[in-house]
Design goal:
Blueprint lengths: L2 H21 L5 H17 L8 H39 L6 H13 L3 H11 L5 H8 L3 H19 L8 H6 L9
């Protein structure tokens, strides 16, 4: 009997017992199927080395144990990677619901500004226009924009105060000093 025929016979004879062996050692049935498939892949690749007759089954169990060991290590690596990614994402992203209070405070502060001051502030902060660019949009002088911007920022600071609940977006963005630009 040639190596290919011995492989086919071992597959027919031992598949169910190896599947049961793997199923008892993994959490998901699909993982057991993967372990058995990998075991037989190894057996196919090494079919010239597979022992004959009764020893074949024992050899396959040994291979399946090694495949299961690799499977469990890979699972642990995936879990650790997932935990690291979750930590990084939690640090990098904020819960949108946490910003609701801040957004309401910002909109309330903006509503308390005059129309032109509000427009100057939003154009320079949210649209990231330089004062001279905002001046073109509004049809006023750059000096007037800088004056209104200074006044609007001071008013927003006064309205919002130094409340530490409004970290980042409110105090840092709305009251940030823009870099000096040429007049």
């Amino acid at each position: 009997m040639n190596d290919e025929e011995r492989f086919r016979r071992a597959y027919e004879r031992d598949f169910d017992s190896l599947l049961a062996f793997a199923t008892r050692r993994v959490e998901q049935p699909a993982d057991a199927a993967d372990v058995v498939a990998e075991t037989f892949l190894v057996a196919w690749r090494r079919r010239t080395e597979v022992p004959a007759d009764d020893e074949t089954r024992l050899w396959l169990y040994g291979v399946a144990r090694l495949v299961l060991s690799n499977h469990h290590r890979a699972g642990l690596r995936r879990e650790r990677l997932g935990a690291r990614l979750r930590r990084r994402l939690s640090l990098a992203t904020r819960d949108p619901s946490a910003e609701v209070t801040e957004r309401l405070a910002v909109h309330d502060a903006l509503a308390r500004l005059g129309d032109l001051d509000r427009e100057v502030l939003t154009l320079t902060v949210w649209e990231e226009l330089k004062p001279r660019e905002a001046a073109v949009v509004l049809g006023i002088s750059a000096a007037a924009v800088r004056t209104r911007l200074s006044r609007a920022r001071a008013r927003v600071r006064e309205i919002l105060g130094d409340d530490p609940r409004y970290d980042g977006h409110v105090l840092d963005v709305l009251t940030a000093i823009t870099p000096e630009e040429g007049r």
